[in-house]
Amino acid sequence: EVRLEESGGGSIDAGGSLRLSCAASGSTGSRYSMAWFRQAPGKDREGVAYISSTGNTGYRDSVKGRFTISKDNARNALYLQMNSLNSEDTAMYFCAATPYPYSSLSQGGYVYWGQGTQVTVSS
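Structure (tokenized):
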């Protein structure tokens, strides 16, 4: 079983940047497809970005050009670089993983989930 632990969240002013990290226990390496999701208070959880086991990446429209997802297979780690943050990015951010090739922001395809890290952007 894979355990995921997010870090790097915090409070920041609009226009600032944060880098989220997700550490995976066990050897996920290049075999796993991973993604970031977020959930704001009173809203459904939504996909933010994914990176498949083959290296394909995808983003929700509202973060394109501002967020970058990357994966370090040797360190079993996933990252999300977030720039030009705004108040609409305020949410709990979760990382997710699946041992299958998967290129989607659909939540159902991910098997393992972290507990989340809070990002709060003040305007």
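Residues 14 and 86 are 5 Å apart (CA to CA). The chain has a mean pLDDT of 95.
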